[in-house]
Specification:
The structure is a homodimer. By secondary structure, chain A is α+β, with helices and mostly antiparallel strands. Helix content of chain A is 29%, strand content 25%. At the A-B interface, strand 1, helix 3, helix 4, strand 6 and strand 7 of A face strand 1, helix 3, helix 4, strand 6 and strand 7 of B.
């Protein structure tokens, strides 16, 4: 070792020891007679001290030549500090230098290597290796490391076997776009990178592996929205001879252990909510239930408290829904306008926002006073279960639209009212997802989860009767604080049902066979009942780290154009490589 | 859970319990009045029993309809067996069935699902999911799982941080051929799949991560020799502020722990041998040192015990080397001919084999008696340190060739003499590899390890003087039983030296900058001294599993044409996909 200790470990007990330390120069303070250097490494910071007249001259000279981020080695004696620094674990001591040598000089970094940096996003990505020196970024990756170890430890103890599935697999047109890899040895043919190890983990169940897991890279060639990465990591799991409830409990256990061991938090009840309930009361399949503010209906298939009053906007809508913003009756006109602007933003797309103030004195004032009497509005207040001082916020429209818009408003109100504390965690399941969803655009049905998800046994009749929208799946998502962190399903394990499913999704027999023949074959040789789930590992890390951005938890992320600006990739390749691969670019 | 117990856990203590089991039908024995079924899952086999007249009729009927590999569920009572089976952990009990249902029927598998199967390689690969049901194959993957957990546990405890490096990176022409991935969002440009995370792990050292590891998939588009896979797994590690000796010790510790915890074996001394020594005495950079049989020289730059006797073959050779096959003087003519045939095989390519029998009675008989007197041969015997009863086997030629051929013969003799016991493990390091090797074909120098390997400080002068063949590297391989399981080096961390290295390898400044500019840049911002290594994880597993084939330790391997015959990949892709990627195949 080039060092006897790291920069985080020296304590008062080490006083009088002769030590050798290595690291980066965080800062130097030259007070003439005395020079102090903060020496940094992954483990911490240790203060070095040199004294004119006592420290050897060469060391003093070298110290004066140091710049920020120089890599140095020092030898010296540990001494007790005169003025201690209780913010540093090593703050009781400093090292009186006797030898100092530069292992590698450093150019001035293009941004400050401090917790708070002056570097913008672009420059920090280009010099990601310097950004990674910053404590908060490193801590994110250390958290990721710890979480990976905890996940494996839990699953290993539960009898799961880690199996590596292949990265060079076969392209399937269903779902998102694949990245493909031309095969030199098989000209004209391509591998694909996996969007998930789905079929392989199901084959492992057919093989009798019983419990499988993997922390695995997956790939999707999608147009990148903010915070999507073309390569991402999943905690991928599958179990045999289980029912949905077994899976929910197994992975509740995992999440509880992660919170316990990584954050010292006990997670209480992990509730279950049906998809139908979530959509009806939150307008979202991943509601944040740290706060209530459930939707109430003023007009729907079941209720109508709005018609017959000649308010054309509501009359034209099939759905009128609202939330109750508790204690917000005092909102100024400006605040109300802000909310209206919020819901009218193109990303949300509402035409307007109706409000009803239920003032503290019991009086009622609304933006639709022209059409609705106080008596009418009292019915609304009752439906909203509002108290004096509350503010009703109401949207209208057709189908799911107003609910989805109201979901955004609900979350915004949660933020404004401080109801979404990032240090408070609420974990729950959303279950009973629809099996299929209809695409108006392509006029066909798609699997909401994937084509291997099993319908609920009691809903299989709808598959036969063609009532496809009514079929619920044995599918579930885990939601933490309004973020979907994982999801899965009980799988189809019968060949006939799987064939029926492919047919329903518009696969010809030939297509199904070409793409998934091996899985259909496998189902004929004794497939057990099985199911599983996958967690988004990047997302889970960012949630535990209290951040919205997965990029902060990936060592070398790509930007929104799928570029790694540090290594400058993707890039052109040699003509010779293209020739060998028997492909041509047509740009 | 669809079961109360698995098929490996019921014992005499469970007698009288009512249990539900699930699994695959291994075999059925129908003796008329009694039916026994062996029910199998990953955990073991449990015997089920049905009795005419006592077991419900439907269960009996269902039992009679079962075929091999049917998936069933049974409920019954645990009873003590009349005739116990001490080969099965569950052999003291059986389950008296009261209910039996078929969860999934199975077609007759195309080969026997037994430890010894009748299936050939091709059929087992096509139905890999059935092959994986076989106990030996599953045990291989369970060993792999355990090894992965042990590796991570050791490295985690030693302060290594697991960091995931990207899979979509940049193509570099140096080294083996890359797999590439066309970028749809950046038409005409490509990602490459990593051959190793080499540059990223070095950047992590520049970032101050200090100790990094990852068990990671790597990719090489090479023409596949037997037992090479296009995707393979490495245990990849890097450390900062260390010297070579620190790395050797750290990973000796890892290997010792793996042997201890996975095989219950204490590994004794782990010796170090220079590359020069290994080549001189074993003709190999990965000698199997479970047995001696070192080479001796009869003619070389230092010695000549052959010239001036008019034996034209030796006179024309610059090198004459031999091994001493202890106790083999009695070899028959046929055995001697076999050895001659062995070394003359095209893969080895020797022109012939000279032998000297040192008979038990002290007499000497050789295949070159015409040229060499007993006195001459006694000198050879002395050089070989042979005893009466031994047999000298001698090859000649120029340069390294005869040594490499003799290495093959030595290993063959080791096999024949039973000196290579697969259950005896010898671990050692080969160190001081040459930095560069010259390619006659391309008339240029190549990095023997990779371009980031540092020369030994005392040999740097040869880099300047152009004496390139003399430069030794701070590079090391770990060898177990003649298999290279891992290797690495201390890296260059100074920009100037790295630039000099690229220049020596024939990179123009521009090429070096284009391909590795980010690394050269990084070296300017404070790079610490660092080094590391990588183990071939597939190979390590196969070695621990006592197998020669890595394929047996990969869940879904590819064949020698890089095909996965189970999923039939690679395959053609849609014209639409090619269009989107802006590429054309030219087959």
């Amino acid at each position: 070792m080039l060092r006897t200790h790291n920069n985080g470990e020296l304590r008062i007990a080490n006083v009088n020891e002769i030590v050798t330390l290595c690291g980066w120069v965080q800062r130097t303070r030259d007070k003439g007679g005395m020079i102090w250097i903060d020496l940094r490494d992954r483990y911490g910071i240790t203060q070095l001290m040199l004294e004119e007249g006592k420290t050897p001259k060469e060391a003093i000279e070298t110290a004066r030549s140091l710049g920020r981020e120089f890599v140095i080695s020092v030898t010296g004696t540990v001494v007790e500090r005169l003025s201690k620094n209780d913010k540093l674990p090593t703050g009781d001591i400093e090292v009186k230098v006797t030898e100092l040598s530069i292992l590698n000089p450093a150019k001035l970094p293009p941004f400050l290597i401090e917790d708070e940096t002056d570097g913008g996003d672009d420059i920090r990505m280009k010099y990601r290796y310097l950004d990674l020196r910053r404590n908060p970024v490193r801590q994110n990756l250390i958290l990721r490391h710890k979480m990976a170890q905890e996940v494996r430890s839990y699953l290993d103890k539960q009898g799961f076997i880690e199996v590596e599935t292949p990265v060079l697999i076969k392209s399937t047109p269903e779902g998102a776009r694949d990245f493909v890899v031309p095969s030199r040895m098989n000209p004209g043919e391509f591998y694909a990178l996996p969007q998930s190890p789905q079929t392989f983990k199901q084959l492992l169940m057919v093989s009798g592996f019983d419990r499988y897991f993997q922390i695995v890279k997956c790939f999707r060639d999608e147009d990148l929205r903010a915070d999507r990465q073309p390569e991402f990591t999943q905690i991928d799991c599958e179990m045999s001879f289980i029912e949905q409830e077994d899976i929910l409990q197994m992975f509740e256990g995992l999440i509880r252990q992660l919170f316990q061991n990584l954050k010292g938090l006990e997670i209480n009840e992990i509730s279950r909510m049906t998809y139908a309930h979530a959509m009806k009361y939150y307008g979202s399949d991943k509601p944040d239930i740290r706060f209530g503010m459930e939707f109430y209906e003023l007009k729907s298939e079941e209720v109508d408290l709005t018609s017959g009053k000649n308010f054309p906007v509501f009359d034209a809508a099939s759905v009128v829904v609202g939330i109750n913003a508790k204690g917000c009756a005092e909102y100024t006109r400006k605040q109300a306008d802000e909310l209206t602007d919020f819901v009218k933003r193109p990303q949300i797309g509402a035409k307007g926002l109706i409000y009803v103030r239920y003032n503290a004195d019991g009086s009622i004032k609304s933006s639709v006073d022209k059409f609705y009497s106080e008596e009418d509005l009292k019915k609304w207040i009752e439906a909203a279960n509002a108290q004096p001082g509350d503010l009703l916020l109401i949207l209208c429209g057709d189908g799911d639209k107003p609910r989805k818009q109201l979901n955004e408003l609900r979350l915004e109100m949660g933020n404004r009212l401080g109801l979404r504390n990032p240090n408070e965690y609420s974990v729950h399941w959303v279950v009973d997802f629809p099996l299929l969803e209809h695409s108006e655009e392509e006029n066909r049905w798609f699997a909401m989860h994937h084509p291997f998800t099993s319908p609920k046994p009691e809903d299989i009749e709808f598959l036969k009767s063609g009532d496809l929208g009514k079929i619920r799946a044995n599918a579930y998502d885990m939601v933490i604080n309004g973020v979907e962190v994982g999801g899965g399903s009980i799988r189809i394990f019968q060949k006939d049902l799987q064939a029926k499913m492919f047919e329903t999704l518009g696969f010809s027999d030939e297509e199904a066979k070409h793409q998934f023949g091996f899985l259909m074959d496998a189902f004929e040789y004794g497939a057990p009942p099985h199911g599983g789930l996958a967690f988004g590992f990047d997302r889970l890390c960012s949630l535990f780290g209290g951040s919205d951005s997965i990029r902060d938890f990936i060592a070398f992320p790509k930007n929104n154009s799928g570029r790694d600006v540090m290594i400058d990739s993707p890039s052109t390749i040699d003509a010779k490589q293209l020739d060998e691969l028997k492909i041509k670019t047509i740009v």
